[in-house]
Amino acid sequence: MLKQCGVWAVLLWPYLLSVSIPLDCKEEQGSLSRCPSISQEKLLDRVIQHAELIYRVSEESCSLFEEMFVPFPLRLQRNQAGYTCITKALPIPSSKSEIQQISDKWLLHSVLMLVQSWIEPLAYLQTTLDRYDDAPEMLLNKTKWVSEKLISLEQGVVVLIKKMLDEGMLTTTYSEQGLFQYEVQPEMLESVMRDYTLLSCFKKDAHKMETFLKLLKCRQTDKYNCA
């Protein structure tokens, strides 16, 4: 069954890349100011589609890395050894009741915080994966694709914030404020566990991004029946 899934993943991967709608929202001068050519509703739909694809591919990347480099005992070790996610310190709502109570504004800002906090770590992950002797090309391509799409998602969320909340360009960036600490040439086992933790944590946060955006969409259409 796993082999069949792997075969389908290989066959469908180029198709997924080709059908994903670009999140380009630029005026003729290349700025991201007001995006007059696309409605707020369509922009939110595109942002959600990007978040869905990013989560799906992050899930596939994490599973592929796990199968290739992380024996089962080490998977347990990650949970027991106190590896924490780099975004744990961010003021992001986690419980269902907290998420239901926060405003649309805070939902969008939470998504932006998560997106920005992962741009630099995923770029760094690319350099570490390149050093693996047996890293499959599919894993490298998937993580590179996610890294690039995350930047596109950031642009879309920033424009969405300006459209929905009428706010100016945000300058707060979380990826360069000490959330992610580099290590100089860690031991191989430590490197594998660190990268595995990064992929696992990003998968969780990508799911949060998708959930927050879909809740926002629900509030736009059926405010009193969003669970």
UniProtKB/TrEMBL annotation:
Subcellular location: Secreted
A cellular-component GO term for this protein: extracellular space
InterPro entries noted in UniProt: 4_helix_cytokine-like_core, Somatotropin/Prolactin, Somatotropin_CS
Biological-process GO terms, alphabetical: animal organ development; growth hormone receptor signaling pathway; positive regulation of growth; positive regulation of receptor signaling pathway via JAK-STAT; response to nutrient levels
Gene Ontology MF terms in the entry: growth hormone activity; growth hormone receptor binding
Source taxon at top rank: Eukaryota
Segment forming the signal sequence: 1-20
Chief location of this protein within or outside the cell: secreted
Keywords: Disulfide bond, Glycoprotein, Hormone, Secreted, Signal
Family, similarity comment: Belongs to the somatotropin/prolactin family.
Name by which UniProt lists this protein: Somatolactin
Name of encoding gene: smtla
